[in-house]
Fold this protein.
Amino acid sequence: MHELSIAVSIVDAVCEELQRRGDPKLHAVHLTMGALSGIVKESLLFAFDAACEGTPLAGTRLVIDETAGEEFQVTALEIEA
Amino acid sequence: MTETRLIEVRRNVFKKNDLLARELRARFHNAGTRVISLVSSPGSGKTAFLERTLSELRDRFRVAALVGDLATDNDAARLARTQVPVKQITTGTVCHLDAEMVQRALEDWTLDDLDFLFIENVGNLVCPSSYDLGEDLRAVLMSVTEGEDKPRKYPTIFNSADVAIITKSDLAEAVEFDRAAARASIESVRPGMKVIEVSARTGAGMSDWLAEICHVD
């Protein structure tokens, strides 16, 4: 239900990371999502695209790795080599 | 095709809220304020339960409440009848309270003046589970009218809470509430969880609840 605000948090966190690393061109964000995190994958994918619009993340893919636990974190950024 | 490479970041998305909640918890602790939050689905009786709790505590302790809803200050107006300080947090379209909303609501309150602060979350069994508010104790409410298997359907919120309150116990018989099934459902998602049955209308079980929140300190 609150996937949009979570997507916005992801975008904010990724923007910060990119800035710290000299603004590389981003292709994808990799995320680990536990089954107990209370977040719905499909809603998050939908919200992510909306949250990226008008930001440096526009057009970025979100790759979600589902696990059994409670964790919910951005694990890696796929950038242009 | 463009060559890409992966860089590892390991960044918790809820980090901002978690850090803020940690700050709030330290502030509450330093001020000697015990903070209790209530979560449940809409209509399970959070406000009636809180109204009764505030009334029972107000003569012995300095108490106050924050109450979250998407819109209206109906609950705050209702709780204000208990004559304790109450503030409504309206979230707009947001389905939960977060630590920042709590922090903002507390800006013009002095915590040192409070023994207890209650936070009634937005009625929702899903989203509030992800947001730490800095509280000492989180109580999840389920009423006898909403089905014994709620905990199995919404395990995350029951897992995020410290104590389960079964409300509206005065209606249990009328709705053929299966007490054993409800307790088994809670036990299956959170083994050993403390369960207290109450009726805000008759006051049954309220002493168990008050003992639970007053025994620490």
User: Anything to note?
Assistant: The two ends of chain B are 64 Å apart (CA to CA). Chain B has a mean pLDDT of 94. Residues 15-31 of chain B form the longest helix (17 residues).
